[in-house]
Write a structure and sequence with these properties.
400 residues, Beta-lactamase, two-stranded antiparallel sheet, globular, disordered N terminus
Amino acid sequence: MILRRVAHLAVLLLGAASASTPGQAGEPARIERPVQRLDGTTLPPESIARSVESLMHAARVTGLGIAILNDNEVVYQRAFGLRDADKNLPLNETTVTYAASFTKAMFAYYVMTLVDEGRMDVDRPIVSYCKRSPAEIEKYADLKGDPRLDRLTARHLLSHTSGFANFRFLEPDGKLRFHFEPGARYAYSGEGINLLQLVVEEIAAAELGGQMQARVFDALGMPQTRMIWDASFEADFASGHDAAGKNLGYQRRTSPRAAGSAATTLRDMAVFLRAVMRGQGLSQASKTGMLHPSIRIRSERQFPTLNEAVTDRDDGIKLSYGLGWGVIDTPHGRACFKEGHADGFQNYMIAFGEAKTGIVLMSNSDNAESIFEELLATLIGDTWSPCEWDGYTPYNAKSK
């Protein structure tokens, strides 16, 4: 009887401490503490779980990881649902999943470390860093003879104002070309990010994967993040699932691509967002420069990228793009956000700098974006994220 009472007391004390389970590299995996929303109200962990599970059920979301930060610290971190629906395997906080375009934000952070070292100026033409013009390389030979290449800067590439299509395979002839003068307007481009990868590899005299590993992942304490697939991930990884719940598997990428090859975990991405919010590893000037608006955005939607339809819908939040991050202004100060999207995987993160509040959403379901808007509003009180611009159609609007 005494032993039972002692055991019961131990359970209660552990729950009161933080409801956390051990993670890797000294960081907890599951964390379940009360969350303070932007409006000052507090959500208990059980309320968060009920809301998340209800939304996932309604929208048929296979798996979803959520990390929430208050005062620049992770206060809630939990995975829901399955990493593999066919095998009925649970999603964990340390399950490896596809970062998709979260990779771009991590790459931008790395570029800013080069800026801090004086090895790169984001407003200097990229050709000045190259021993030979990118147009002399077969992959970029389509740009030969176009004088706009000589005016292209890292700022243009990181702020998606290069003038390129998202990817060249979307062009009718499959060739890379400028559609407008660099800096003229916003048009999301993975091609631009991959071109900058070529430049920074020349500056660093090293392949990007190794540089990202040492300068970002290892430096910040992200033990399960790589630019390419690692054999150690086989024991616990998330398969993507389409809108009908069909298992799409995981594409094991073998070449580092700054536009989106990284594999990571919910826990590691929470560590990364926390580092960005704190300015960890960057000078104040580089952090400010990365998250300062470089271009105002008035496009109706982010995709298709070259659509010229415009709107004033998002003028109230001054929707803009910084270097690798979207930027908005809110009553709680400036916020930076980044999406990640691929077949079977949908991610979103946003950080409110002055309020020191942020959230990471990572899912292995094509239905997840349909609940992002409601999750953001419910969990942290974020009603400013540009969900319509991002194309996030609410799950309950689809059936109307």
